[in-house]
């Protein structure tokens, strides 16, 4: 595993495995994890590779920096716009292609085969919210200062916040207020809105520990069952009840044949902890 972790880690992201079957992915670009093009490309590649690993059952995403999770986009990284075609139509196509690649990278946790728990603290601005919205479970330290910052720099958030957040949050008025005003909001307000499920008293150490504890619990479950649950929940978000019932019937028509089902029943009868094989036997080449 150590060689794989070394291969996963890069210039801006550190990957470790503090608990069996659990990865800790840490954003590590000082001083405030501002995202450049190479940073978000590395981020997308890390999550692509994680889905190739058979024995990863949960991921915690956090920052390694004391100041916070991320200050959002490093606008010096937008200099590439100057190299685009001068013609408005052609320039628009080039911008669209860049944005689609950016969206795909930041959406990496959503496509990951196992649940991703994001643990934020301190400065959590702009692109941070796009990142959070693409994760399955969201925790915030009590010292978190969050903002949907994009209107302050003259644009509508376009990397996932406005697409996902209205479907995640229970308080639509707060979603609109924060998106229109770009004002800072607290972890308590994020919980009230429905962006986070838990506020952890403290800062980085405390929220990461809480996320790791949840990841450890998830990792004890059948990976087939957890994967199926993630896929069905995502489908339910984007489809009608009837469509989702048909989807899960087809999905479980295959997955109920997994040995995980019989292993779970046998362990329950014997009052023992079930153990499960990897999702697939041979690690894919990274």
Automatic annotation (TrEMBL):
Instruction: Supply the alphabetized keyword list.
Output: Fatty acid metabolism, Isomerase, Lipid metabolism
Protein name, UniProt field: ClpP/crotonase-like domain-containing protein
Q: Which GO terms describe its molecular function?
A: delta(3,5)-delta(2,4)-dienoyl-CoA isomerase activity
Family, per entry: Belongs to the enoyl-CoA hydratase/isomerase family.
Q: Native species of this protein?
A: Cristinia sonorae
- InterPro entries from the entry? ClpP/crotonase-like_dom_sf, Ech1-like, Enoyl-CoA_hydra/iso, Enoyl-CoA_hydra_C
- Per the record's keyword annotation, is Transferase included, yes or no? no
Q: Does the UniProt entry include the keyword DNA repair?
A: no
**GO BP, sorted A to Z:** fatty acid beta-oxidation
Annotated metabolic or biological route of this protein: Lipid metabolism; fatty acid beta-oxidation
A single cellular component GO annotation: mitochondrion
């Amino acid at each position: 595993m150590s060689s794989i972790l070394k291969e996963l880690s890069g210039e801006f992201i550190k990957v470790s495995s503090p608990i069996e079957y659990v990865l800790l992915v840490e954003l590590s670009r000082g001083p405030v994890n501002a995202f450049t093009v190479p940073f978000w490309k590395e981020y997308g590649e890390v999550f692509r590779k994680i889905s190739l690993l058979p024995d990863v059952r949960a991921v915690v995403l956090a920052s390694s920096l004391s100041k916070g999770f991320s200050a959002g986009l490093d606008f010096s990284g937008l200099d590439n716009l100057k190299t685009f075609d001068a013609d408005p139509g052609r320039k628009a196509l080039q911008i669209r292609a860049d944005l689609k690649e950016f969206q795909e990278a930041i959406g990496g946790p959503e496509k990951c085969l196992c649940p991703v728990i994001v643990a934020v603290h301190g400065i959590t601005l702009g692109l941070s919210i796009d990142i959070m919205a693409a994760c399955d479970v969201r925790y915030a330290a009590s010292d978190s200062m969050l903002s949907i910052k994009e209107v302050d720099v003259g644009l509508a958030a376009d990397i996932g916040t406005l697409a996902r957040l209205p479907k995640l949050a229970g308080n639509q008025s707060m979603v609109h207020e924060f998106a229109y005003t770009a004002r800072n909001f607290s972890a308590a307000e994020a919980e009230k809105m429905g962006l986070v499920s838990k506020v952890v008293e403290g800062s980085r150490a405390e929220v990461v520990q809480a996320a790791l504890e949840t990841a450890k619990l998830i990792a004890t479950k059948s990976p087939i069952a957890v994967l199926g649950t993630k896929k069905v929940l995502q489908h339910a978000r984007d489809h009608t009840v009837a469509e989702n019932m048909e989807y899960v019937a087809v999905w479980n028509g295959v997955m109920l044949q997994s040995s995980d089902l019989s292993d779970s029943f046998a362990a329950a009868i014997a009052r023992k902890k079930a153990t499960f094989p990897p999702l697939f036997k041979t690690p894919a080449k990274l």
